[in-house]
Design a protein that fits this description.
Rossmann fold, six-stranded parallel sheet, about 260 residues, alpha/beta, two-stranded antiparallel sheet
């Protein structure tokens, strides 16, 4: 999850074959945003009116569009640094930088926390739970152990959505970049997930919608990968491509 104005999944590079030698697949590791839920990264499609009002009460008389631009600027600065080394940052980091810029002084931590909570409550309204995903995950959990491995800048966002979807109990682990300190595709986050589950890489399959984070990164960590790529935007083997998350049960059966 990156709370900024754009997201890109496209990549023209060719990658390794999904049919790697290994153990029988016993665990399925899922990306979250864009895989188990649809979401909007941020911007005009969201209503951040409460966040804007809070900012004004704190002393920054920016118009709404100016508020969005200033928030996007603060977020992009951290994202640019993260793109270099894949270190994760937090919503507190963004909120602190944002308020410092718009207020012209270091903000109080309580004000930062209040702004972050308000912003996230509005951002979360852009997360759409996929129809039928609960039934799919329930069926998969009868045959496989499940986990989520997600990039996110706040600890409770992904678990909160899993609870709201009624599926949190189906997952053995929820591993986030916020808690690990490194975001996909850094190898540390995949290793952290495998260690928490107590499994070898060959026992797992990673499923996601972003080439570097959910396909190439897991493969380099020794985990077989399936990419949701309905429009064939990236050059990967046919057997590694899913047109929909709902193709997954048949593909897993084929792998085993």
């Amino acid at each position: 999850m990156t709370l900024r104005h754009s997201i890109s999944n496209g990549d023209s590079r060719r990658s390794e074959d999904v049919t790697m030698p290994g153990l029988r697949v016993t665990h399925v590791l899922f990306d979250f945003f864009g895989t188990l839920v649809d979401y909007s990264a941020g911007g005009a499609e969201h209503d951040f009116a409460r966040s804007h009002d809070l900012m004004r009460t704190l002393g920054a008389p920016l118009a709404y569009d100016e508020f969005l631009a200033a928030w996007s600027k603060a977020s992009a600065q951290f994202a640019m640094l993260s793109d270099i080394d894949n270190r994760e940052y937090s919503m507190t980091d963004i909120g602190t930088a944002f308020l410092r810029d718009v207020l012209g002084r270091p903000p109080a931590r309580a004000d930062v926390d209040q702004l972050v909570r308000t912003y996230l409550s509005e951002w979360n309204k852009g997360v759409r739970h996929l129809p039928g995903i609960g039934d799919l995950l329930t069926a998969l959990a009868a045959e496989y152990r499940l986990a989520v491995v997600s990039n996110t800048q706040e600890a409770d966002v992904v678990p909160g959505h899993l609870e709201a979807m009624g599926v949190r109990q189906l997952f053995d682990a929820v591993v986030t970049s916020f808690e690990v300190g490194w975001r996909k595709p850094h190898p540390t986050i995949y290793t952290a997930a495998l260690n928490e589950l107590g499994i070898a890489p060959g026992a797992a399959v990673f499923v996601g919608d972003t080439y570097e984070a959910d396909y190439s990164g897991p493969l380099q960590a020794g985990v077989r990968s399936l990419l949701i790529d309905p429009h064939s935007q990236v050059a990967i083997p046919h057997e590694a491509r899913l047109s929909s998350i709902f193709e997954l049960p048949a593909r897993l059966a084929a792998l085993n």
